[in-house]
Amino acid sequence: MLTIDLQGGFEGDQVVIAVDGREMFRKKGVKTRQQIGLAERVRLDVEPGQRSLRVSLPDRALQQELQVDTTADPVLAVSLVGGQVEIGPLMTPGYL
Predict the structure, then answer these.
(1) What is the CA 51 to chain-centroid distance, rounded?
(2) Would you tell me which of 3, 27, 82, 92 could form a disulfide with 75, CB atoms 3.0–4.6 Å apart?
(3) pLDDT surpassing 80 at residue 94
């Protein structure tokens, strides 16, 4: 299982998530709830091992790719910062 928290900076965006080139999530209107700093929690059922993760916002022509080891059921955070998509490990969030 791969968990992705879409956090800060989303303003009604379309978000597309692909793993190993296969689209696994697409949603329009993704918006960060400022009170909790979370827009959406996405859980993807993926095979364990090294996987290529791509998060894109087609309406903004933004995307970021990252190699992820899904063996240990990682949880990642995705935010929009300074006009860029940032993907990293989830630090202790306030919304759990």
Answers:
(1) 14
(2) 3
(3) no
